Amino acid sequence: MSGAGRRRPSTRREWAWHQLDPEWAGRLVDQAEVRPGQLVVEFGAGTGAVTAPLLDSGARVIAIEWHPGRAAALQRRFGSAAANGTLKVLGIDALDFRLPARPFRVIANPPYSITSALLRLITARHSRMIRADLVLQRGAVNGLLERPPRWFVGVRGVRVPRWAFAPPPEVDSAVLTLRRRR
Ligand SMILES: C[S@@+](CC[C@H](N)C(=O)[O-])C[C@H]1O[C@@H](n2cnc3c(N)ncnc32)[C@H](O)[C@@H]1O
């Protein structure tokens, strides 16, 4: 899947920026059980609510954020991690991302509007993703647990309340965990 030629969002609504509360972001990363040195891709990193605990966990992080101001803010906020190579910030459309050639994980709170396309990208046949922990719309999580993408198993869907975001979204959310089948 490629996002080639997609128009960059312009309105606040189109950007769908809902900041995750730092405590909930910390829980997301704790429950994802990241091991130091693992490569983690974060789609829609915003200003870094999830990036911060990911870096604290010792992960090597690729943070993708298409909004130029927010990508610049990430670069400023985590300047030392960017300088020492533990963080790479990419200011691109998530759907244009070229998947890493080595095993990687996805831990992210992406815009819900790209859920299907993003899942097609990260679970494609050639993908080396081993596990995904994604904050998504709750209805989508339930559907994916019933019918997970090929080569993956749906492990769990943990509810996230609307008030865990600022501003709160109009829909319910949950964390979907997918693991590659052995
Ligand atoms: C639900 S918010 C996540 C916010 C982040 N967790 C935080 O707390 O700051 C989704 C983010 O995805 C970004 N975004 C929207 N469309 C995108 C796309 N196609 N590719 C990459 N980032 C995108 C938005 O700018 C927003 O920052």
Automatic annotation (TrEMBL):
<feature type="binding site">
    <location>
        <position position="93"/>
    </location>
    <ligand>
        <name>S-adenosyl-L-methionine</name>
    </ligand>
</feature>
<protein>
    <submittedName>
        <fullName>23S rRNA (Adenine-N6)-dimethyltransferase</fullName>
        <ecNumber>2.1.1.184</ecNumber>
    </submittedName>
</protein>
<dbReference type="Pfam" id="PF00398">
    <property type="entry name" value="RrnaAD"/>
</dbReference>
<feature type="binding site">
    <location>
        <position position="44"/>
    </location>
    <ligand>
        <name>S-adenosyl-L-methionine</name>
    </ligand>
</feature>
<comment type="similarity">
    <text>Belongs to the class I-like SAM-binding methyltransferase superfamily. rRNA adenine N(6)-methyltransferase family.</text>
</comment>
<feature type="binding site">
    <location>
        <position position="65"/>
    </location>
    <ligand>
        <name>S-adenosyl-L-methionine</name>
    </ligand>
</feature>
<feature type="binding site">
    <location>
        <position position="109"/>
    </location>
    <ligand>
        <name>S-adenosyl-L-methionine</name>
    </ligand>
</feature>
<feature type="domain" description="Ribosomal RNA adenine methylase transferase N-terminal">
    <location>
        <begin position="24"/>
        <end position="182"/>
    </location>
</feature>
<dbReference type="InterPro" id="IPR001737">
    <property type="entry name" value="KsgA/Erm"/>
</dbReference>
<dbReference type="GO" id="GO:0052910">
    <property type="term" value="F:23S rRNA (adenine(2085)-N(6))-dimethyltransferase activity"/>
</dbReference>
<keyword id="KW-0694">RNA-binding</keyword>
<dbReference type="InterPro" id="IPR020598">
    <property type="entry name" value="rRNA_Ade_methylase_Trfase_N"/>
</dbReference>
<dbReference type="GO" id="GO:0000179">
    <property type="term" value="F:rRNA (adenine-N6,N6-)-dimethyltransferase activity"/>
</dbReference>
<dbReference type="InterPro" id="IPR029063">
    <property type="entry name" value="SAM-dependent_MTases_sf"/>
</dbReference>
<keyword id="KW-0489">Methyltransferase</keyword>
<keyword id="KW-0949">S-adenosyl-L-methionine</keyword>
<keyword id="KW-0808">Transferase</keyword>
<dbReference type="GO" id="GO:0003723">
    <property type="term" value="F:RNA binding"/>
</dbReference>
